[in-house]
Every structure is written in C-alpha cells, then in structure tokens.
Write a structure and sequence with these properties.
This protein is α+β, with helices and mostly antiparallel strands. Helices cover about 65% and strands about 10% of the residues.
Length: about 375
C-alpha cells in the first residue's frame, strides 16, 4: 500500500486539531465552569504543548532547526509531564508540579547537550521513554486512589487507559531502534510514521477521555458527599448512618461483630440560651473535631439529630468500645470552648452497646446504646455507661 504525503499531512493536522480543541475545552472547564480549575488548566496546557510541538515538528526543514528541534522535543516532554501532574490534581486536589517541572528541566538540558543532526534517536528515546514513565506513574496513582476510595466497588479500571498510553509511548521509544530516522519528520510517508501518527491520535483521545471521566467521577463523589453529610459538622447524616448501620448488622449475621457509642453533649440547651445558637453550632463542630482522632478508617461517625451523635465501630466488642468512648470523653472534657473572649466548659455523656444474639435489627443495638447514654446523663453527666 502506497502512503502519500497528503495522508500523513491530513492525519498530522487531525492530531494537532484534536489537541487544540481539547485545550480549549479544558480551559473552558477551568475558567468558566470552575470544575477542578487547577487540574483542568494543567490539562489545557498539556494539550497546547502537544499541539505546538507537533506543529513545530511538521515545519522541520522549512523553518530554522533552532525553532523546530529542541523546542519541539521540550514541549512534547512537557505535555506528558503536565498530563502526569493533572491526574493526581484531579483525584486529590494536590497538583505535584514541582517533580514534573524538575523532570522537564533536567531532560531538556540533556537533550540540549545532544548533537543536532539527522539522527534523532536519542531525542525520541528521551521524550517517549520519559513520557511513558510519567504517564505510568500517574496511572499507578490513579489506580491506587480509586481502589482505596471505593473498595470492592472500585472504578479503578478507569485508570487502565493511562497504562495503555504508557505502553504506546514505550512502543514509540522502541521503534527508534527499528527506524532511527522516524522522529525527524512527522510528515514522512514511511509506514512506521503513519502508524505512529495513528498512535498519537489514539493517545490524544485516550488521555482526554480518561481525564474527563476522572473529573466526572470527582463531581459525582462531591454530590454523593453532599447528600450523605451533615452540613454543619461534616459527620454522616441520619440516612447515611442508618445505611452504614444496616450494613454492619448484615455483617454481624455473618460473624462480624460491631459496637456503638452514643454521644450527647451535656448542658447543650444552657449553652445555646447563654451564648446563642452560633456558639452552639461552634461547640458541635469543635466536639466533632476533637473526637475524630479516635476513629479508624473503617469507623462511621454520624449525627442523629441536635447534639446527639453515634459512632459505629466494626469488629469491636464492648470492651474495645469502652476504651474508645473513654478517650472521646476525655478529649471533649479537656479543653473549654472559647467564644467571644469567654471559656465555656464542655463535656459529653456516652453510652455504649454491642450487637448481641437475639438482636433482630440494628435498631435494638441503637436503643441499648441510647439507653446507656441516658443512664450516663442521670449519673451526673461526663461519664461513659454500658
């Protein structure tokens, strides 16, 4: 099959066009929709760098080499570094731009020291090899984060396209050993160059679609969090906590025990009447922040209503729950609430209960913990009762 210059030029223009459109879309998401703005701007920059790099490569031979060789390679490398930084930026809101910048600067200096000529093997190997590593690291970060976020229902396969992009870049690096001159002119009519252009188009679509899915997943998670969280304290709301409790009771029937700790702030009405409802809200937030260090990742902390909270402790017996509850009581009682230059002493009464044979539902365990909490109130408050 004969490959014409028009075919390669058209395919190259398509790749550049896709990068340009993607850069505009990501910039719009960042600046207009305000969706993951820093990560979206990073993706816009990654696509812009790739588009400019391919344009410069296409002009090799027509424009001075000083414009089309080293700058194009640096921009290509920067596009992969920016892609690698955008992935954790979308997933965790932390943009690791310093490591990406360090890689680009170091390898750019290495390529600047390489002799410039017809043999572009080392430039191709550096750009493609480093790009493969950067994207592979981003894929591993995405996989681990998604897996840890959702457990068995993980959407971790969303990260698979990143591994495919890394593989394609590794193949591009390997091809420099087979066809040493392919990196010199992307308009070449050699079959391997046409294959690489198709790979470049595939990578453009994959990387932007993958990051778009990650952004969508982040938005979904944010909506889910808003639906299941108490807006004042960021604890689980009653519906979300009841769901977690029902799941724990289903696990108890399969042999996994659990315990509950009911928490009720003491003299909360008096605090509201004396300092105002704003102080009461501040006291609830303060108490939640104080007891959080006592919780494990598997524990669930919910607000049942008013000043009443409950902690679900999976795989915990009554003795373990008593230890956790006592630590919580001590933390709440240790430091007073500072409000308008006035200290207000805080304390909480806690009741604990463990799932036992004969409990038809989780509500029976919850009722025992609630009854224990009221006994703690009647015993003088600021105590733990089982």
């Amino acid at each position: 099959m004969t490959i014409t210059l028009a075919q390669t030029t058209t395919l190259l223009a398509t790749v550049v066009f896709m990068h340009g459109v993607s850069a505009l879309v990501w910039a719009t998401l960042a600046m207009v929709a305000r969706i993951a703005p820093r990560a979206s701007l990073t993706m816009a920059a990654a696509n812009a760098c790739a588009a400019v790099a391919l344009t410069l490569m296409a002009r090799r031979g027509a424009w001075p080499d000083a414009w089309t060789h080293w700058p194009a390679d640096v921009l290509n490398l920067a596009s992969f570094a920016l892609l690698g930084a955008a992935v954790p930026g979308i997933l965790t809101s932390r943009l690791p731009w310093r490591p990406a910048a360090a890689v680009v600067v170091a390898l750019s200096l290495v390529m600047l020291a390489l002799p410039d000529g017809g043999d572009m093997r080392w430039q191709t190997r550096i750009v493609s090899g480093a790009g493969a590593v950067l994207v592979l690291v981003a894929g591993v970060v995405a996989w681990r984060h998604l897996q840890g976020l959702h457990g068995r229902r993980t959407p971790a396969p969303l990260a698979l396209p990143l591994f495919l992009i890394a593989l394609l870049l590794a193949l591009s690096c390997a091809s420099s050993f087979v066809a040493p001159g392919h990196g010199h002119d992307p308009r070449s009519t050699e079959p391997i160059n046409l294959a690489l252009l198709w790979l470049a188009l595939l990578m453009t679509l994959l990387q932007n679609a993958t990051l778009a899915f990650l952004v969508m997943m982040r938005l979904i998670r944010r909506i889910e969090r808003l639906l299941e969280r108490d807006p004042l304290t960021d604890a689980l709301n009653r519906g979300a906590f009841d769901q977690a409790l029902a799941q724990a009771h289903a696990g108890w029937r399969r042999g996994r025990g659990y315990a509950l700790v009911m928490i009720d702030m003491d003299r909360f009405k008096q605090l509201n009447d004396t300092l105002g409802h704003a102080a009461g809200d501040a006291a609830l937030r303060w108490m939640v922040n104080e007891v959080r260090p006592c919780l494990r990742e598997v524990d669930r902390f919910g607000r049942l209503g008013g000043e009443e909270f409950c902690v679900l402790l999976p795989d915990t017996d009554i003795a373990g729950a008593a230890l956790v509850a006592e630590r919580m009581r001590a933390l709440v009682n240790a430091t007073p609430l500072r409000w308008l230059e006035q200290d207000w002493p805080l304390s909480a009464s806690l009741g604990i209960a463990e799932a036992e044979p004969g409990d038809a539902s989780a509500s029976a365990v919850l009722a025992r913990a609630d009854a224990a909490m009221y006994r703690a109130k009647h015993q003088g408050r600021n105590v733990v009762q089982a």
